[in-house]
Design a protein that fits this description.
It is a single chain. The chain is of the alpha+beta class. It folds into 2 domains: 35 residues; 136 residues, Nucleoside Triphosphate Pyrophosphohydrolase (Alpha-Beta Complex). The protein contains 4 helices and 12 strands; from the N terminus they run E-E-E-E-E-E-E-H-E-E-E-E-H-E-H-H. Strand 9 and strand 10 form a beta hairpin. Helix 3 packs across helix 4.
């Protein structure tokens, strides 16, 4: 679905270039001819992996500055290496953050994370069988993060009771549960 219902972007100006993020101000013409402005955070895209090791899921608990707390997540990262395809980026991020390697990746979804302010699209994969290795964390948050396993069904329950709240993680776990239930 890409129907814009008569809305048209007529002008875009960059308000800030912050490295991997850019903040644009877009002028949009509405179907009635009115021009309105909207701020858009332009993101390079990201990947995430639901890594399963037997009946367990591999998770990472790391500090996230925007919410000023440690958040339990599936491994993920931005598409920031020129020419790297999404599958390779997912394998790289999984290995960097957790040390685990994936034998296979199954595409679960492409999730639009915050359509009210950003164009970020995160591709989520299921890694049905991972093996441990040595993590190569990048950045202070990853170096201080805690990688751990949890029974997969417990993770589903943690989502249901609101203990796991990160959007990509919730989506990934629930889609993986649905896929696992179908086999």
């Amino acid at each position: 679905m890409t129907d814009n219902h008569g809305f048209e972007i007529v002008h875009t100006a960059t308000a800030a270039d912050l490295g991997f993020l850019r903040v644009d101000v877009s002028t949009i013409r509405t179907p009635t001819g009115e021009d309105i402005e909207r701020v858009v955070v332009v993101h390079p895209g990201a990947v995430a992996v639901v890594p399963l090791c037997g009946d367990d899921i591999v998770l990472i608990a790391q500090y996230r500055a925007p919410v000023d707390e440690v958040v339990v997540e599936i491994p993920a990262g931005k598409l920031d290496m020129r020419g790297e395809d999404k599958r390779s980026a997912a394998e790289r991020e999984l290995a960097e953050e957790t040390g685990y390697g994936a034998h296979d990746l199954i595409h679960l979804t492409d999730l639009k994370t915050g359509v009210g302010f950003t164009n970020e699209l995160i591709t989520i994969y299921l890694a049905p069988s991972v093996t441990p290795g040595i993590a190569r964390p990048v950045g202070a948050e990853e170096r201080e993060a805690r990688v751990f396993t949890m029974p997969f069904q417990q993770a589903v329950e943690e989502v249901a009771r609101g203990a796991i709240t990160d959007a990509k993680t919730v989506a990934g776990i629930l889609l993986a549960e649905r896929l696992r239930g179908a086999t």
